[in-house]
Give the backbone structure.
Amino acid sequence: MKPIASLSLDLDNKWSYMKTHGDAGWEKFPSYLDTIVPRSLNFLKERDLIITFFIVGQDAALDENHEALAQVSGANHEIGNHSFNHEPWLHLYSKAELETEFEKTEEAIAKITNQTLVGFRGPGYSLSPTVLEVLAERNYEYDCSTLPTYIAPLARAYYFLKSPEMSDEEREKRKKLFGKFADGFQSLKPYRWQIGEKSLVEIPVTTLPVFKTPIHFSYLLYLATFSELAAKTYFKTALRFCVVNRLAPSLLLHPLDFLDGTDAAELKFFPAMNLAAEKKMELLSDFLESFSKHYALKNVREHAREVSLNEKLATRNVAHLQNQTPDPEIRRPQSEFRNL
Ligand SMILES: [Zn+2]
């Protein structure tokens, strides 16, 4: 029997990309859900795939999106929480801000589906000990907000360690704390966060073992704009690495994997938007075929339940982690590459 792996789609809407990019007009919440939802649902249905859609609360709160979002749950896909405001600096929110964020999202999604939300992915892979604490208090079963890559943590470490106002003592302290925080984020295998009496399964977004470069589909499509063969070979090699390392991948899709510049002119500047949607789906189909040769593809909830039942998971104590100090310099829109 093939091992279980998982597939999810972060249903980032047009406005959330515009917001992150700092474009005017996002606050009217322009949407492409009427295009992307039926298109992706058809694609998945043709391939018998039931996955997880991480939905943004703000979209669920608007009546005009209800029909599209109800179709997702109607097609038996799992609905996960992708925050309310889709702000990649969610890891800097206070506990009270996070509680409001969760309440609003859960309430808005409850109007569309009676599924209980058990999974969370932070926007832009943002996560903090406080987010984990709130998830545990609200009885979530899993988190999948970590993307183990050397790029982002290194950039952040550099930022903290180079800060001129920091004393040597503070610098040392941060180095240690940062080290611990980053270690947690570097694991490719699922593990368990222990949060007081409760625990949560962490399903990291899989990156290439050892090298930790991304292997999810938006990245593969971006590579394909340079060379299709290179993208396909890279993915097949990555899968082989996963098989050898007994690592069941959890990979993700984005709406832009199904759209091109004619579907969303405002987002033409994003990587791979010059590739026709039909071409993207043809490539996706090819990637997914390779993926399902080795693994049984499920939604993230099933993946988390499976590893929780059948594997001895490493435990990380969230009490040892520290929240990052809120800093106005970080609290601003980040580059579009965080959404890749
Ligand atoms: Zn997102």
